[in-house]
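Inputs:
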Amino acid sequence: MLEALQMPFFQHALIAGVLIAVAIGLIGPLTMANKMTFMSGGIAHATYGGVGAAIFFGFSILVGATVAALVAAAVISFIAYRYAHRADTAIGIVWAVGMAIGVVLSDMTPGYNVDLMSFLFGSILAVGSDDLWLMALFDLVALSLVWYFYYDFLALSFDPVFAKLQGVKTGLLHLLLLILVAMTVVLAMRLVGLIMVIALLTMPSFSSEQYARSLGGMMLFSIFLSIFYIVAGLFVAYLYDLSSGASVILVAALGTITLFFIKLMLRTIRHHPRHQRRASVRRGGEA
Amino acid sequence: MKTPAIEVRHLSFSYEEHLVLEDVTLEVEEGDFLAIIGPNGGGKSTLLKLMMGVLKPDRGEVRLYGKPPQEADIVIGYVPQETGHNLDFPITVFDVVLMGVLHRRNIWRRYDKTLKQKAFEALEKVQMASMADRRIADLSGGQRQRVLIARALCSDPQILMLDEPTASIDFNGQREIFALLEKLNEEMTIVVVSHDMSMVMGYAKHALYVNKTAVMHTIDPHTRYQIKQQLKDHKGHYCGAEFWQDMGRKIECTSECRHA
């Protein structure tokens, strides 16, 4: 297992995993609190359209994916804002159409035989050193933005109506959040894949919500969990020669389920009859 | 005569084609404790939002201390209806209260010491200071409502507007909230949308019955005192029958009424 650490490609994958985990841990809790999981899924799948376009027209895949993700984020943000009651339908359309464009364009590209599956499910081999710098830069930008707008995001997540009354630009904040999701999706694409990244945005956040006492704590815990899941998943992928994205997701699912049951057990212990007595006395007093 | 705190003149409002409020006229004096009552969908919350200036009337006008809500140089504290849809979200009581001064953060978008002090004082006013570090999800419905009131208080409002603050709270919790409002009423004007006739009759100075149109009713101090005493022992339940009779409306008793 340790000889893996000698390989440059695996070193790249590990560093990329940690860098992408920071972004995922920061953004995931915000997307979950604002019920944006489906929107994130829409962006992730539509991004494939950009990949197809890049292959067909022969420009950089990173550029194609970025443009497609940002366009999808803008469209989804606009729909969610103006047609809130049918937003999920519209997002479903963006989701499928983006994907379809990607598939058709790559079908039409003669003689193209790069493994397209790697964009969907991630590949341990796909990360270059340029990608690492880009990820580090994005982490820095995301960290600054989340720090600067921390209390705005907090208000948006807990009580958007009140936040708006207090002069918070909730519409713009919503768009900013989707743009951050779009960039996270693009940067996570090579390592964990477009489809798998959605689950990574949700699973660590879901666990940390149960344990953390604040949004900041939730982010820290999510980052920690994401790093753990990705690193462990990469080792599994290397050892058994599997898709890195799928391995990461299965490790994450195992961790999420374990944490869920630990929390459930803690709660049961706290609600043990011995602790219950005080509560029932209080109820009796009210009757 | 003094300028009224809130003045509504010949106001009409409709959502799309549906007329919600028609030719509503009323005045709320400074220091008043007004309860807005009436059936569901009668336009209570809509009227509250029009008073705050969140919605704009189709016809007629709203004045706060003589000026339109957008220009008025006063602070309104707003306590929205508790929907509780994001209770899983980890946020402390103190951070919720700080949201009341979101618009007064410094250039780093952070809260200064004075703002934190204000939030703490607001929590003391609603007797929740000891719970500042608790997660909002760990509180009871009544406690949560107090926190939302504290959030509205920390911007030093002249008028406090509450939308159904006691929905889904048990009897004692309701009474505590209304007792708190009565105390706050010494310092500010209060407008509260409420379903609960017993509470309204025991604590408010005026009741406005809203069902497309609006009728103002004064609750005399004597009645108020009596009902409040009954509420204290939790003996009587005031179903508002007399009140509706006064207003020439059909009397509808709830099952709770009939057993009282």
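The longest helix of chain B spans residues 171-184. Flag for discussion at group meeting.
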